[in-house]
Design goal:
Layout: H1 29-39, H2 50-63, E1 67-71, H3 74-89, E2 93-96, H4 102-110, E3 114-117, H5 129-135, E4 140-146, H6 156-165, E5 169-172, E6 180-181, E7 184-185, E8 192-196, E9 209-213, H7 216-226, H8 237-246, H9 267-277, H10 280-296, E10 316-320, H11 326-338, E11 344-345, H12 372-380, E12 381-385, H13 392-403
Parallel strand pairs: 2-3, 2-4, 4-5, 5-8
Antiparallel strand pairs: 1-9, 6-7, 8-9, 10-12, 11-12
Helix pairs in contact: 1-9, 2-9, 3-4, 3-7, 5-6
Bound molecules: pyridoxal-5'-phosphate.
The site of pyridoxal-5'-phosphate has 16 residues, from helix 3 and helix 4.
């Protein structure tokens, strides 16, 4: 099949030698025109300003929360949330999955918390509820759940138990914009939620991230932490007054309330966000339709098809072998390579984080092999791009590519 056949609406692949690249370019002509129109103004403001503020407010309405703070990446959203947790609740244990992105674990370490790893539920790919509840101790400061590759990772039991115990739930929704739990968007159940707008995700601001919350104190804290911890970013007059009285010898413009970083976006990221948000829902719908079609072309004797897909919003197709079979794995990879279909093994973040070198000097962590379900995914799974422009025939063709796979020599 010719690579051009897969593309329509001017979507452009970065790598021309793949017939089916991992991602399509989801910055459209109209997004670029929005930027150009803005730049043609007399003296356009480029550092973050009204457009970012407007995007934050539209994002909050889209999601269904009170407040959002835009950042320069999803990793920054992770870092900021963990710093805010430290500033507002102190350091302690944070329950994390081994199947996630590096920044979810690194942010816990950066802020001085201790990561406590809990294995996943193979049907949702998020942390197993019973294992999370069993891992809670008096030192638990938060549960940091990742919604993996568009699946809803929440359960009623988890939400109810964390509410009962008063333990903050933090949702990483960087891979799952628009997914729902009980019909309500994920990212609205926790104390805080994190989003990424990196190029490869459901929508993009080139680079970008968001933290969303219903807690106005966390909102003010996030505004400060985004900008070096600076008090002047805080919109709460009472908080400002408190600091001014306590630190009269400091210039009010330069009061740094917490050790933080610069995680600010630019105004151009905000303009892109506003332009992209308009088509997020329709793209989620198309991707969901594609994903259901994808599951229907898989041989359930070879691949897992029993995912919990209610409310999912997948921007990738998840291929997971049913059995731990290296021969089968080689056959899948060869078939995809021959067909020039780009893939990533290990799903979110390349599989089991406990196998990664950045954790090798951290004491007291479990061994990677203790995470049995994550280990399976680490070795025997892949993801493939799922974008709105995919055609039905292309998904059928993927089915024919995978058909010859049997595990037998
Ligand atoms: C689950 C998850 N969290 C955080 C991030 C970090 O987002 P960003 O690439 O915008 O820094 C990613 C990145 O893809 C991710 O998949």
């Amino acid at each position: 099949m010719e690579s051009q056949q897969f593309w329509s609406n001017g979507a452009i692949s970065m790598q021309t030698d793949f017939s089916w690249p991992l991602m399509s370019n989801n910055v459209t002509r109209s997004d670029l025109d929005a930027l150009i129109t803005y730049l043609q103004k007399d003296d356009p403001r480029l550092t973050h300003g009204p457009a970012v503020f407007d995007f934050e407010s539209q994002w909050s309405s889209w999601l269904g929360v009170e407040h959002s703070v835009m950042l320069n990446s999803g990793a920054s959203a992770n870092d900021l949330t963990m710093l805010a947790l430290r500033e507002m609740h102190g350091t302690g244990e944070v329950i994390v999955p081994p199947l996630t992105w590096v920044s979810d674990v690194a942010s816990v370490l950066h802020a001085g918390h201790k990561p406590v790893f809990v294995d996943i539920n193979p049907k949702s790919l998020a942390m197993d509820t019973d294992k999370v509840i069993a891992a809670i101790t008096p030192q638990t400061k938060a549960v940091f759940l990742t919604h993996v590759l568009g699946f809803n990772g929440l359960t009623n039991e988890l939400v109810a138990e964390l509410n009962r115990l008063g333990i903050p739930l933090i949702e990483d929704v960087c891979e799952s914009h628009g997914a729902t739990h009980n019909g309500k968007k994920v990212g609205t159940f926790g104390w805080a939620s994190n989003f990424s707008f990196y190029f490869a995700h459901h929508m993009t601001t080139i680079e970008g991230g968001m933290i969303s919350t219903n807690d106005s104190d966390l909102y003010e804290m996030s505004r400060m932490l985004r900008s070096h911890g600076m008090l002047r970013e805080n919109l709460n007059v009472k908080t400002k007054q408190k600091y001014l009285i306590e630190f009269p010898e400091l210039n009010p413009d330069f009061i740094f309330t917490a050790a933080s970083h610069n995680m600010r976006p630019t105004e151009l990221n905000g303009i892109l966000g506003l332009s992209q948000l308009d088509r997020l829902d329709s793209n989620v719908e198309l991707r969901t339709r594609n994903f259901k079609h994808f599951l229907s072309i898989l041989d359930p004797a070879i691949f897992r098809t029993d995912f919990e897909i209610e409310g999912s919003s997948n921007y990738a197709f998840t291929l997971v072998l049913k059995t731990a079979d290296f021969l089968l794995r080689d056959q899948v990879e060869t078939a995809l390579q021959v067909a020039k279909i780009e893939f990533r093994r290990g799903l979110s973040g390349g599989g089991n984080q406990l196998r990664q070198p950045y954790l090798r000097n951290i004491k007291g962590l479990p061994s990677a092999s203790e995470m049995i379900e994550t280990e399976h995914v680490h070795h025997y799974s892949w993801y493939i791009g799922n974008y709105p422009e995919l055609k039905s025939e292309q998904i059928d063709w993927l089915g024919s590519v995978l058909k010859g796979i049997s595990g037998k020599k």
